[in-house]
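The instructor's notes for this session suggest beginning with a concrete chain rather than abstract definitions. Hand out the sequence below and ask the class to guess, before any prediction is shown, which regions might be ordered.
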Amino acid sequence: MATLKDYAKKAKARMKSGFWEEINKKRQLDIECAESAGKSKDVVLKEYREVLTRQLFSQDSEEDEILYKKVCDLLSQEALILNPIGLLADKEKMRHMDESAKQQYILELSNKFKDMKERFYQESKLSLVYKK
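After discussion, reveal the predicted structure:
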């Protein structure tokens, strides 16, 4: 569990490294691109807010991003996927669980999949906006 001191250290490191200046430049370019395509800048701002929230405050960020990449790969395929949760589940991890732990794991994984699927489609929609 991260403490307030840990968050402060990370915030200071971001400030020193120019993280926020880079984010502001990218955001401004994306806003200009969206406006030139006739889209609202609110969509870009909402997406930046979601991405930064995930990036800055997510405890399981690395594991979730690995899972998100797998979800993206699955959803990008042309073939029909009948059991995406089964493909995403860690079989080795499940082998050492009892039945109730397996059910809990599958439930959490399905909730993450639902959220990540929504994120994938939102990001796909935004990338189409920028290409136009």
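Then share the key points. The mean pLDDT is 85. Residues 1-58 form one domain.
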